[in-house]
Amino acid sequence: MISPFIVNADGVYDKNLFLDRYPAGQVNRALVAWDSADEYLINYVIEQNLADSQHSLLIYNDSFGAITANFTQSNVTTVSDSWISKQGLQYNLEQNGLSLENITQLTSLDSLPDNITVILYKIPKSKSLMIDQLLTIKAKYNQEVIFIAADKAKDIHSSTLKLFEKYFGTTKTSLAVKKSRLVFSQLDNEQVLPSPFPTIWPLENTQFSISNHSGVYAREKLDIGARHFMENLPDVKSGMRVIDLGCGNGVIGLTVLAQQPEAFVTFVDESYMAVDSAKANISNNLPSQIEQCEFSINDCLADVEPNSVDLVLCNPPFHQQNATTDHIAWQMFRDSHRVLKKGGELRIIGNRQLGYHIKLKRLFGNEKLIASNDKFVTLSAIK
Predict the structure, then answer these.
(1) Tens-place pLDDT, residues 255-312
(2) 199-382: CATH, from 3.40.50.300, 3.40.50.10490, 3.40.50.150, 3.20.10.10
(3) Model-level pTM?
(4) Rounded to an integer, what distance in angstroms lies between the CA atom of residue 122 and that of residue 67?
(5) Does a cis peptide bond (omega within 30 degrees of 0) precede residue 23?
């Protein structure tokens, strides 16, 4: 989709950027790969000449590369916890004929580079992830670094600004433009606060302790959806190959291994922090079974062989970044149907109002209600 951003293509002419959400081909074309906060931030950087040869940029949480694509001729490092965002950046650069040569892509678990002069920060939805990132930035850089954050004005609350003040120091905001604001912080708070991450909490009714990175859902306790799902898991036989799809901290796969020590479980998520948390939770709680596990950072089940899996367990997300969308759930269901053996089962949990039973019936030709309460349904479909 054509964006409002115009870049110098090769020093000869300017052109509009074409930017898409990733994976490409999503049905809801009303969802775009940028927002007005991206536009505000990009325009400010250009107006202030902050992307010239004198500066090295560190860009956080650039969902599909809209910010980075405007500065490919600068020295840029990106940080994201999302494998999909990382692929989205590469896809959008390629379709615009732009080079990755000057861009270094880091995950949220990597060490930050030296010699950064400007940090461009899209404020994430998760406040715990935000705190973790601010702590990491403050521990690495000093007040000589220019720090600029951006988000929709409605999402920049007084509590958000207090976090910048607490972890960085002096903070001010811009006027609103197209319902977005910029936040300017000086890293002048001399105190570097200790990080509370990863958090560790006891898994109820077990002897297990769960470790959670900041960007992983249910950071301090078992969420009610996972609890309902754990109470309604199928019987797993010895030697079965199971996938915990969208594994988060891995409590579902951990529960399967605790109930059936001879199962083989693959943990899949597009979050680097999630897969690292899942691996830590198996290593710490069931170390003797770590060799029966695989851990994969990927877009659903793209690399899994067809007709190779006995059981897929899944709690599908219904949002991508800040957008509500069901395309991820639909992709998870289609991928599960492809990788399951004949007679294999997809078992999912979801909010009642999402209507997943319709999708399962359409794709598998059958669906069964396993359990329900006022908020959740657990459903099964057999290939």
Answers:
(1) 999 999 999 999 999 999 999 999 999 999 999 999 999 999 998 999 999 999 999 9
(2) 3.40.50.150
(3) 0.94
(4) 9
(5) yes
